[in-house]
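Repro:
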Amino acid sequence: MLKLNGDLPRPAYKDRAFPLVLNIIDMNGKEVKLQEKVVFKVMVFTAESPVKQLLMNTSGDKAVLGSLESEGDCTIIFKRIIIKEVTSHFRNGYFFLAIKPENSNYIKPLVISDLIVKARKMVAGETNKRRKMENKSLNEDQIS
């Protein structure tokens, strides 16, 4: 089976890349080195019923970009995963992130069931209203 090595960003942010590192382990939790390399794929699914793979975002662009395929026999590294959709656009408010092996029935896929993706990271103390007011005052200063 697959085990996450390190932390997943909580929350993740739209258009901001994050890495994902996994290890292949046996049923006792010990790392395993396979005889041959296996290709692994990252997929994102909605948490609605029925579950659907997220292929396009609400703007019509690809919803998931970056290094979505990786090959490995012990450690699998996805250097950059970019999600271009936010979870607030969906009823349940989160996504399923799945990593599955290609052409390999003996490795159990990893499903992370509570991935939250937000629009943008706010600076401490910043609100949308405050930012708009600051931008407005900057524009007024430029006019005068």
